[in-house]
Write a structure and sequence with these properties.
membrane, 298 residues, Farnesyl Diphosphate Synthase, 15 helices, mainly alpha
């Protein structure tokens, strides 16, 4: 039975108004988590960990300049996206991340411009092929922002954003490969599917919040019930690819254990809605799945 996403949202909405992570009964770590989430630092760090993981799977050397470039690129994409949402808001948003960008538009804009300059300087230390693929990522990011600027419904922006995020993670590793085989494309597809599910689950939890802030999403466009079915299909497809790797392929099988852990984490979020609504645990777990590739190095 599908979870009652439209029920029990009153507690979530109320919790968003009081911003529980920022009013966290004096617990310092909860405040730190709130700042990290609002600044999208967890997303940037997760992308860097995933990039290192992919580099290890491909057996290529991901250097510090590549990681710095990726971290800056992902952070800029998410920050500009949130700043745009904050700029379009007629009043202070209910969503704490958007409210944070609404309150601190100027310092965040200055920080973004400064980091962009750092990113340009850092790019001069990258291999030529990495720069070429990085320019493609810049073009894709530009197309993404053009799409959300021009599109009225923005119903498929999650898929576009997932594509850009996946491209960012794989830019450096792919630039160091001599050839790209089927298994590489399948691994790219798996991360894309995980990113799609990730970017749909959070709006699924926050559907009432997005309605109040008038934030468009695929979940709002198709409805909560159909959105959950889409997510289940995406995760199921990822499981089938995992099975394919174990049955027919010899390469990247170790990576599949990490992919399974990431996929199961998202399955759990769908099955235990009421539990993970409390304290925005769904957001910590959803964004945190891209930290799981770090288990590969333990």
């Amino acid at each position: 039975m599908l979870r009652p996403w439209l029920q029990n949202n009153e507690d979530l909405i109320e919790s968003r108004y009081i911003e529980p992570w920022l009013n966290s009964q004096g617990f310092f770590m909860q405040k730190v988590v709130a700042i990290v989430q609002n600044l999208s630092l967890d997303i940037a760090i997760g992308a860097m960990i995933s990039c290192l993981f992919i580099g290890a799977i491909f057996q290529v050397d991901i250097n510090n300049h590549m990681l710095i470039g990726l971290g800056i690129a992902i952070w800029l994409i998410y920050t500009f996206d949130h700043l745009r949402d904050a700029r379009l808001a007629k009043s202070r948003p209910v969503n704490p991340r958007h409210a944070f960008h609404y309150d601190y538009k100027l310092p965040l804009t200055v920080a973004a411009i400064s980091l962009f300059i750092v990113g340009v300087i850092n790019a001069t230390f990258l291999p030529v092929k990495t720069i070429e693929l990085g320019l493609i990522l810049v073009l894709l990011s530009g197309l993404y922002f053009f799409y959300i600027y021009k599109s009225k419904r923005k119903a498929s922006k999650e898929f576009f954003a997932a594509f850009v995020y996946t491209a960012g993670i794989f830019t450096a590793p792919l630039s160091l490969l001599d050839s790209v085989e089927l298994t590489v494309w399948l691994l790219i597809g798996q991360f894309f599917l995980l990113a799609c599910a990730n970017l749909m689950i959070i709006p699924l939890y926050e559907i009432r919040i997005d309605e109040q802030d008038n934030v468009n999403s695929l979940v709002r466009y198709v409805g909560a019930s159909k959105a959950e079915k889409i997510i289940l299909f995406i995760l199921g497809l990822n499981v089938l690819i995992v099975v394919y790797f174990f049955v027919t392929q010899n390469g990247f099988q170790q990576a599949q254990y990490v992919i399974i852990a990431m996929t199961l984490s998202l399955f759990v979020l769908l099955s235990k809605h009421v539990i993970f609504t409390k304290g925005q645990l769904y957001r910590i777990i959803c964004d945190g799945i891209f930290f799981l590739p770090g288990l590969y190095f333990i």
